[in-house]
Amino acid sequence: MGSWKKEDGNCEWIHGPVIVGAGPSGLAVSACLKQNGVPFLILERSNCIASLWQEKTYHRLKLHLPSQFCQLPFLSFPEDFPKYPTKHQFISYMESYATYFSIQPRFKQTVERAEFDGFWRVRTQDFEYFSRWLIVATGENAEPVVPEIQGIENFQGPVIHTSVYKSGSEFRNQRVLVVGCGNSGMEVSLDLCRYNATPHMVVRNSIHILPREVLGISTFAIAMASGGRKLGPIELKNATGKTPVLDVGALSQIKSGKIKVTEGVTEITKNGAKFMDGQGKEFDSIILATGYKSNVSNWLKDTGFFTKDGMPKTTFPNGWRGENGLYAVGFTRRGLVGTSWDAVNIAGDIADRWRIINGGKNSCGSKIFFKDRQEK
Questions:
Q1: How far is CA 84 from CA 69, 88, 374, in A?
Q2: d(CA 326, CA 32)
Q3: Mean pLDDT across the chain
Q4: In this entry, which stretches build a coiled coil (predicted)?
Q5: How many CB atoms lie within 10 A of CB 155?
Q6: Tens of pLDDT along 267-283?
Q7: Burial category of 340 from C-beta neighbours within 10 Å (exposed 0-12, middle 13-18, buried 19 and up)
Q8: Distances from the Cα of 229 to the Cαs of 200, 224, 234, in angstroms?
Q9: What is the pLDDT of residue 247?
Q10: How far is CA 80 from the centre of its chain?
Q11: pLDDT at residue number 249
């Protein structure tokens, strides 16, 4: 939409912004642009929206926060959804969201390089796009983090990252080393217990474990209502740099001994692992619950806006706008609440510039408008 193609067919001028990534962040900013009458093009390396959720999450995953804190702008969850929607419910919500706002990403377009040269040049494996604006929507969790562990290449059993873990049924009755004790490590360990596996979870440093709810009220909601006292998951994450664990049952399994807790790994052997306390244990499988990272530094030419780790140097709430028409959505470390904040701000800023360029009119020739929430 809103583009011009050269005759050779391998490059295209986009009148609105180019958005990289069709996950929740890309969808949110697309909807906000749509509401402002600004055309856009959204590029996605996979063949579906929200590919992380659809392709790299385990079956039992549910949202860690109540649904009202996980909605994208201008469209609520269905009324019959539970307080904590399942993975499949959240995917269906995002698919409905894309349909509702007529968001049509261009799939199988992997951005290999983007740079500013008077305008933005965005190159994929087989095409090049040009635009005044570039919105980075690949988020904090674009690529799995795979740590280097001495000897891991010698292990004779399977070694997988949680990005390919689906269910504990594949590890029934096994001794499993789970490297990582964040939300993924805890939930995978809990899932393994349900299939009579024996998970040994590696805990190298202290971790913050919060109950998901207190007297039926979510910890996150309490933190929001308290005016940001440092007791909620986001406050702890910002203060320590680590995501706290919202307990959904793993803690009781640790107390009962069904989930074993071990010290840091010093070496992986062909049939097990050695630990910092000098002990060694045998394992059938290893699961790396070591999280994800940004991949922006792999493809965005240095702009001074992002760190070498692919995160905006300016923190929330001002990390959504760079220079020369560069924007970032989904890097706030505040979940989907932060994503929505970014999306609304970015769309409003671009709409103002679009209005100047186009004499106060949107792409359809009418005045810029902003629909009321849930207008149908």
A1: 10, 12, 21
A2: 17
A3: 88
A4: none
A5: 19
A6: 999 999 999 999 999 99
A7: buried
A8: 34, 8, 10
A9: 79
A10: 25
A11: 84
